[in-house]
Specification:
- There is one protein chain.
- The protein is built from ten helices and 13 strands.
- The N terminus is likely disordered.
- 31% of the residues are buried.
- It has two domains: 205 residues, Rossmann fold, CATH 3.40.50; 41 residues.
- By secondary structure, the protein is α/β, with parallel strands linked by helices.
- Helix 3 packs parallel to helix 5.
- Strands 6-7-8-3-9-10 form a six-stranded mixed sheet, sandwiched between helices. A three-stranded antiparallel sheet has the order 12-11-13, with helices on one face. A two-stranded antiparallel sheet has the order 1-2.
- It binds adenosine-5'-triphosphate.
- The site of adenosine-5'-triphosphate has 10 residues, from helix 1.
Protein backbone atom coordinates (compact mmCIF):
# COMPACT_ATOMS: atom_id res chain seq x y z
CA UNK A 1 0.00 0.00 0.00
CA UNK A 2 1.39 3.38 -0.90
CA UNK A 3 1.69 5.76 2.01
CA UNK A 4 1.84 9.48 1.51
CA UNK A 5 4.79 11.01 3.27
CA UNK A 6 3.66 12.51 6.58
CA UNK A 7 3.49 16.25 6.40
CA UNK A 8 2.75 19.06 8.74
CA UNK A 9 -0.41 20.88 7.91
CA UNK A 10 -0.16 23.94 10.04
CA UNK A 11 2.83 26.05 10.88
CA UNK A 12 1.88 26.64 14.48
CA UNK A 13 0.65 24.24 17.12
CA UNK A 14 -2.99 24.73 18.01
CA UNK A 15 -3.81 23.31 21.43
CA UNK A 16 -7.23 22.17 22.46
CA UNK A 17 -8.62 23.31 25.76
CA UNK A 18 -9.35 19.66 26.53
CA UNK A 19 -6.10 18.03 25.40
CA UNK A 20 -6.33 15.31 22.81
CA UNK A 21 -5.44 15.41 19.16
CA UNK A 22 -5.82 18.60 17.16
CA UNK A 23 -5.31 19.31 13.51
CA UNK A 24 -5.91 22.41 11.43
CA UNK A 25 -5.79 22.98 7.72
CA UNK A 26 -4.66 26.58 7.45
CA UNK A 27 -6.89 28.59 9.76
CA UNK A 28 -9.54 25.87 9.91
CA UNK A 29 -9.55 23.60 12.98
CA UNK A 30 -10.65 20.22 11.64
CA UNK A 31 -9.93 18.00 14.65
CA UNK A 32 -10.39 19.59 18.01
CA UNK A 33 -9.16 17.59 20.98
CA UNK A 34 -10.01 14.04 19.88
CA UNK A 35 -9.52 11.41 22.58
CA UNK A 36 -10.49 7.78 22.20
CA UNK A 37 -9.01 4.33 22.16
CA UNK A 38 -9.83 1.29 20.09
CA UNK A 39 -9.69 -2.08 21.83
CA UNK A 40 -8.04 -5.08 20.30
CA UNK A 41 -10.57 -7.26 18.50
CA UNK A 42 -13.42 -4.78 18.46
CA UNK A 43 -15.26 -3.17 15.61
CA UNK A 44 -15.14 0.55 16.35
CA UNK A 45 -17.52 2.76 14.37
CA UNK A 46 -16.69 6.38 13.64
CA UNK A 47 -19.80 8.30 12.62
CA UNK A 48 -20.45 11.91 11.86
CA UNK A 49 -21.94 14.33 9.37
CA UNK A 50 -20.10 15.10 6.19
CA UNK A 51 -16.98 17.13 6.89
CA UNK A 52 -16.90 16.16 10.60
CA UNK A 53 -13.31 14.89 10.34
CA UNK A 54 -13.68 11.11 9.92
CA UNK A 55 -11.39 10.64 6.94
CA UNK A 56 -8.88 13.05 8.42
CA UNK A 57 -8.80 10.93 11.57
CA UNK A 58 -8.11 7.78 9.55
CA UNK A 59 -5.31 9.63 7.76
CA UNK A 60 -3.76 10.51 11.12
CA UNK A 61 -4.09 6.96 12.41
CA UNK A 62 -2.44 5.61 9.27
CA UNK A 63 0.28 8.26 9.26
CA UNK A 64 -0.77 9.90 6.03
CA UNK A 65 -1.04 13.12 8.04
CA UNK A 66 0.57 14.32 11.24
CA UNK A 67 -1.39 15.95 14.05
CA UNK A 68 -0.54 19.48 15.23
CA UNK A 69 -0.80 18.48 18.87
CA UNK A 70 -1.71 15.45 20.95
CA UNK A 71 -0.39 11.90 21.06
CA UNK A 72 -1.39 8.88 19.00
CA UNK A 73 -0.40 5.31 19.80
CA UNK A 74 -0.42 2.43 17.38
CA UNK A 75 -0.17 -1.11 18.78
CA UNK A 76 0.62 0.44 22.15
CA UNK A 77 3.58 2.54 20.98
CA UNK A 78 3.87 6.15 19.84
CA UNK A 79 2.86 6.21 16.19
CA UNK A 80 6.06 8.12 15.37
CA UNK A 81 7.96 4.94 16.20
CA UNK A 82 5.83 2.66 14.03
CA UNK A 83 7.95 0.36 11.89
CA UNK A 84 7.29 -1.18 8.49
CA UNK A 85 6.44 -4.39 10.33
CA UNK A 86 3.71 -2.44 12.18
CA UNK A 87 2.34 -1.09 8.90
CA UNK A 88 2.25 -4.65 7.55
CA UNK A 89 -0.24 -5.45 10.29
CA UNK A 90 -2.60 -2.79 8.93
CA UNK A 91 -5.06 -2.79 6.03
CA UNK A 92 -6.52 0.45 4.69
CA UNK A 93 -9.54 1.04 2.52
CA UNK A 94 -9.84 4.77 2.00
CA UNK A 95 -11.17 5.27 -1.46
CA UNK A 96 -10.70 3.32 -4.64
CA UNK A 97 -7.89 5.54 -5.93
CA UNK A 98 -5.28 3.06 -4.70
CA UNK A 99 -6.32 0.72 -7.53
CA UNK A 100 -4.38 0.67 -10.77
CA UNK A 101 -6.83 1.69 -13.48
CA UNK A 102 -5.08 -0.09 -16.34
CA UNK A 103 -4.79 -3.38 -14.51
CA UNK A 104 -7.57 -5.93 -14.06
CA UNK A 105 -9.16 -6.71 -10.73
CA UNK A 106 -7.11 -9.90 -10.44
CA UNK A 107 -3.86 -8.17 -11.45
CA UNK A 108 -4.45 -5.51 -8.81
CA UNK A 109 -5.01 -8.19 -6.22
CA UNK A 110 -1.90 -10.12 -7.24
CA UNK A 111 0.13 -6.92 -7.23
CA UNK A 112 -1.00 -6.01 -3.71
CA UNK A 113 -0.34 -9.57 -2.53
CA UNK A 114 3.24 -9.39 -3.84
CA UNK A 115 3.81 -5.89 -2.41
CA UNK A 116 2.66 -7.25 0.93
CA UNK A 117 4.95 -10.26 0.51
CA UNK A 118 2.06 -12.70 0.44
CA UNK A 119 1.56 -15.82 -1.63
CA UNK A 120 -1.03 -15.85 -4.38
CA UNK A 121 -2.90 -18.93 -3.23
CA UNK A 122 -5.78 -17.11 -1.51
CA UNK A 123 -6.63 -14.94 -4.47
CA UNK A 124 -9.16 -17.28 -6.09
CA UNK A 125 -10.94 -17.68 -2.78
CA UNK A 126 -11.03 -13.92 -2.17
CA UNK A 127 -12.37 -13.22 -5.66
CA UNK A 128 -15.02 -15.90 -5.20
CA UNK A 129 -15.91 -14.49 -1.81
CA UNK A 130 -16.58 -11.02 -3.22
CA UNK A 131 -18.40 -12.44 -6.25
CA UNK A 132 -15.71 -11.06 -8.53
CA UNK A 133 -14.52 -14.32 -10.10
CA UNK A 134 -16.43 -13.75 -13.34
CA UNK A 135 -15.09 -10.19 -13.60
CA UNK A 136 -11.53 -10.98 -12.57
CA UNK A 137 -10.13 -9.91 -15.95
CA UNK A 138 -12.08 -6.64 -16.15
CA UNK A 139 -9.83 -3.59 -16.08
CA UNK A 140 -10.45 -1.31 -13.13
CA UNK A 141 -11.15 1.61 -15.48
CA UNK A 142 -14.10 -0.40 -16.85
CA UNK A 143 -15.48 -1.43 -13.45
CA UNK A 144 -18.67 -0.13 -11.88
CA UNK A 145 -18.42 1.74 -8.57
CA UNK A 146 -19.54 -1.34 -6.64
CA UNK A 147 -16.97 -3.57 -8.37
CA UNK A 148 -14.21 -1.06 -7.63
CA UNK A 149 -15.25 -0.86 -4.02
CA UNK A 150 -15.20 -4.65 -3.63
CA UNK A 151 -11.87 -4.91 -5.44
CA UNK A 152 -10.37 -2.20 -3.20
CA UNK A 153 -11.60 -4.00 -0.12
CA UNK A 154 -9.96 -7.23 -1.26
CA UNK A 155 -6.69 -5.40 -1.87
CA UNK A 156 -6.87 -4.06 1.69
CA UNK A 157 -7.45 -7.58 3.01
CA UNK A 158 -5.02 -9.53 0.88
CA UNK A 159 -2.35 -9.75 3.60
CA UNK A 160 -4.82 -10.72 6.37
CA UNK A 161 -4.20 -7.57 8.45
CA UNK A 162 -4.93 -7.55 12.18
CA UNK A 163 -6.07 -3.94 12.12
CA UNK A 164 -8.32 -2.64 9.38
CA UNK A 165 -9.18 0.99 8.65
CA UNK A 166 -12.25 1.13 6.46
CA UNK A 167 -13.52 4.48 5.23
CA UNK A 168 -17.11 3.96 4.10
CA UNK A 169 -16.52 0.43 2.82
CA UNK A 170 -20.08 -0.10 1.62
CA UNK A 171 -20.74 3.21 -0.08
CA UNK A 172 -21.98 2.58 -3.60
CA UNK A 173 -22.68 -1.10 -3.04
CA UNK A 174 -26.01 -2.75 -3.82
CA UNK A 175 -27.76 -4.57 -0.95
CA UNK A 176 -26.34 -8.00 -1.88
CA UNK A 177 -22.74 -6.76 -2.08
CA UNK A 178 -23.26 -4.79 1.13
CA UNK A 179 -24.47 -7.93 2.91
CA UNK A 180 -21.42 -9.80 1.57
CA UNK A 181 -19.08 -7.12 2.94
CA UNK A 182 -20.87 -7.31 6.29
CA UNK A 183 -20.47 -11.08 6.37
CA UNK A 184 -16.80 -10.75 5.51
CA UNK A 185 -16.20 -8.14 8.21
CA UNK A 186 -18.01 -10.26 10.80
CA UNK A 187 -15.82 -13.20 9.84
CA UNK A 188 -12.66 -11.11 10.13
CA UNK A 189 -13.78 -9.94 13.53
CA UNK A 190 -14.48 -13.48 14.66
CA UNK A 191 -10.96 -14.35 13.52
CA UNK A 192 -9.64 -11.64 15.85
CA UNK A 193 -9.19 -8.60 13.57
CA UNK A 194 -9.69 -5.10 14.93
CA UNK A 195 -11.80 -2.90 12.66
CA UNK A 196 -12.07 0.88 12.57
CA UNK A 197 -14.91 1.81 10.26
CA UNK A 198 -16.59 5.01 9.13
CA UNK A 199 -20.05 4.86 7.70
CA UNK A 200 -23.12 6.97 7.08
CA UNK A 201 -25.30 3.91 7.44
CA UNK A 202 -26.77 3.66 10.94
CA UNK A 203 -28.14 0.15 10.45
CA UNK A 204 -24.66 -0.95 9.38
CA UNK A 205 -23.09 0.71 12.42
CA UNK A 206 -25.60 -0.90 14.72
CA UNK A 207 -25.15 -4.34 13.18
CA UNK A 208 -21.35 -4.38 13.00
CA UNK A 209 -19.92 -2.17 15.71
CA UNK A 210 -19.17 -3.00 19.33
CA UNK A 211 -18.74 0.69 20.11
CA UNK A 212 -19.46 3.90 18.24
CA UNK A 213 -17.99 7.35 18.44
CA UNK A 214 -20.05 10.19 17.05
CA UNK A 215 -17.92 13.06 15.86
CA UNK A 216 -19.12 16.53 14.98
CA UNK A 217 -16.98 19.50 13.96
CA UNK A 218 -13.83 17.64 14.93
CA UNK A 219 -15.00 16.65 18.42
CA UNK A 220 -16.31 13.42 19.81
CA UNK A 221 -19.75 14.14 21.20
CA UNK A 222 -20.74 10.58 22.18
CA UNK A 223 -18.97 7.26 22.56
CA UNK A 224 -20.58 4.02 23.65
CA UNK A 225 -22.05 0.71 22.56
CA UNK A 226 -24.87 1.26 20.03
CA UNK A 227 -27.55 0.02 22.41
CA UNK A 228 -26.22 2.09 25.30
CA UNK A 229 -26.34 5.19 23.12
CA UNK A 230 -29.99 4.54 22.36
CA UNK A 231 -30.73 3.87 26.03
CA UNK A 232 -29.07 7.13 27.05
CA UNK A 233 -31.53 8.96 24.88
CA UNK A 234 -34.52 6.86 25.87
CA UNK A 235 -37.43 9.18 26.44
CA UNK A 236 -38.79 7.27 29.40
CA UNK A 237 -42.08 6.73 27.64
CA UNK A 238 -44.20 3.80 26.68
CA UNK A 239 -46.48 3.83 23.70
CA UNK A 240 -49.72 1.86 23.69
CA UNK A 241 -51.83 1.25 20.64
CA UNK A 242 -55.43 0.72 21.75
CA UNK A 243 -58.50 -0.74 20.12
CA UNK A 244 -60.75 2.35 20.35
CA UNK A 245 -58.70 5.13 21.99
CA UNK A 246 -55.92 5.55 19.45
CA UNK A 247 -52.21 5.64 20.37
CA UNK A 248 -51.43 6.65 23.95
CA UNK A 249 -48.03 7.88 25.13
CA UNK A 250 -47.39 7.45 28.84
CA UNK A 251 -44.51 8.43 31.07
CA UNK A 252 -43.12 5.40 32.90
CA UNK A 253 -44.42 5.88 36.43
CA UNK A 254 -46.88 4.41 38.90
CA UNK A 255 -49.84 6.15 37.24
CA UNK A 256 -48.87 4.56 33.91
CA UNK A 257 -48.90 1.13 35.56
CA UNK A 258 -52.53 1.72 36.64
CA UNK A 259 -53.51 2.92 33.19
CA UNK A 260 -51.90 -0.09 31.53
CA UNK A 261 -53.67 -2.38 33.99
CA UNK A 262 -57.06 -0.77 33.26
CA UNK A 263 -56.51 -0.90 29.49
CA UNK A 264 -55.54 -4.56 29.65
CA UNK A 265 -58.60 -5.35 31.78
CA UNK A 266 -60.80 -3.60 29.21
CA UNK A 267 -59.19 -5.62 26.40
CA UNK A 268 -58.13 -2.35 24.79
CA UNK A 269 -54.45 -3.08 24.23
CA UNK A 270 -53.30 -3.96 20.73
CA UNK A 271 -49.57 -3.26 21.25
CA UNK A 272 -47.21 -1.85 23.88
CA UNK A 273 -43.69 -0.74 23.20
CA UNK A 274 -41.06 1.42 24.81
CA UNK A 275 -40.09 4.57 22.99
CA UNK A 276 -36.32 4.25 22.63
CA UNK A 277 -34.89 6.23 19.76
CA UNK A 278 -33.02 4.42 17.03
CA UNK A 279 -29.44 5.41 16.28
CA UNK A 280 -30.54 7.73 13.52
CA UNK A 281 -32.65 9.72 15.98
CA UNK A 282 -29.81 9.75 18.53
CA UNK A 283 -27.52 11.11 15.87
CA UNK A 284 -30.01 13.79 14.87
CA UNK A 285 -30.54 14.78 18.48
CA UNK A 286 -26.79 15.07 19.09
CA UNK A 287 -25.74 16.84 15.93
CA UNK A 288 -28.95 18.47 14.76
CA UNK A 289 -28.09 17.12 11.35
CA UNK A 290 -28.78 14.13 9.19
CA UNK A 291 -25.98 11.79 8.29
N1 LIG B 1 -6.20 18.52 2.52
C1 LIG B 1 -7.13 19.34 3.03
N2 LIG B 1 -6.98 20.66 2.97
C2 LIG B 1 -7.90 21.50 3.50
N3 LIG B 1 -9.05 21.08 4.10
C3 LIG B 1 -9.25 19.76 4.17
C4 LIG B 1 -8.32 18.81 3.64
N4 LIG B 1 -8.78 17.56 3.88
C5 LIG B 1 -9.97 17.73 4.53
N5 LIG B 1 -10.25 19.03 4.71
C6 LIG B 1 -11.42 19.60 5.40
O1 LIG B 1 -11.46 18.98 6.68
C7 LIG B 1 -12.82 18.78 7.07
C8 LIG B 1 -12.99 17.32 7.45
O2 LIG B 1 -12.87 16.52 6.27
P1 LIG B 1 -13.00 14.94 6.31
O3 LIG B 1 -12.73 14.46 4.93
O4 LIG B 1 -12.18 14.40 7.42
O5 LIG B 1 -14.55 14.79 6.66
P2 LIG B 1 -15.43 13.47 6.75
O6 LIG B 1 -16.03 13.47 8.12
O7 LIG B 1 -14.65 12.28 6.35
O8 LIG B 1 -16.57 13.78 5.67
P3 LIG B 1 -17.36 12.79 4.66
O9 LIG B 1 -18.37 12.06 5.50
O10 LIG B 1 -18.03 13.76 3.72
O11 LIG B 1 -16.36 11.90 3.99
C9 LIG B 1 -13.68 19.21 5.91
O12 LIG B 1 -14.13 20.51 6.18
C10 LIG B 1 -12.74 19.23 4.75
O13 LIG B 1 -13.09 20.20 3.80
Amino acid sequence: MRRARPRRTHPHRAHSRHGGVCLSFGPKRVLDGLTFNVRRGECFGFLGPSGAGKTTTIKLLTRQLTQDTGRIQLFGRPIEHASNADYDRIGILSDTSALYERLSIEENLRLYASIRGRGQHDIDRLLERMKLSDDRRTLIKNCSKGMRQRAALLCALVHAPELLFLDEPTSGLDPAARAEVHRMLSELKRAGATIFITTHDMAEAEALCDRLAIIDRGRIIALDAPQSLSMKFARNRIVITTRTRGVLELTRDAAAADTVHDLLAANEVLAIHSDEPNLEEVFLELTGRNL
